[in-house]
Amino acid sequence: MGFLIAGGIIIIIGGFWIMNYNGLIKLRGWKEESWSQIDVQLKRRYDLIPNLVNTAKTYMKHERSTLAEIVEKRNQITSPDLTREEQVQADNQLSGALRQFFSLTEAYPDLKANESFSKLHEDLVATENKVAYSKQLYNKTVMQYNNKVESFPSNLIASVHNFRKHGYLEATNEERQSVKVDFD
């Protein structure tokens, strides 16, 4: 009789362990998938940028430095040697350059009226919205994952199987500031 009780306890503990372990695996997979969604949207944005810059070059003769900065930042981000953190940092710098660029386009009515530029601008704005949503999803998934890693009793299983907390994507100081445009 004692053997059956001990066996039952072992089965319950084993089942509990497996359920929590599988929950951690599922959340880690969701976290990786949400990062992948960010990566897909960033790739789409990087593909749009050269077309947008080339269209704008014909109109924005005085803004060559801004256009060159956008191309430079885009090329930095596409480097395969970047870690996730470096990629996020470079992406934040590119976002700032793009905000500056879109502010400058307000001074060029012919450019704003150009159909190709308008379509590219719309596509880029839609992609920026998708990037923002993907970053929100990533942070939400990381929060769920981190909660599971830190909560009792799953934290015991997480520590045994080497599950670690992950950091959130945060806005930089540059992103928190409004874009300053001076046409003088």
TrEMBL record:
Keywords: Membrane, Transmembrane, Transmembrane helix. It is found in: Membrane. It comes from the Bacteria. Its main location: membrane. It is a single-pass membrane protein. Gene3D superfamilies: LemA-like domain. The keyword Nucleus does not apply. The chain crosses the membrane at residues 6-25. Belongs to the LemA family. This is LemA family protein. It comes from Alkalicoccobacillus plakortidis. The lineage of its organism: Bacteria, Bacillati, Bacillota, Bacilli, Bacillales.
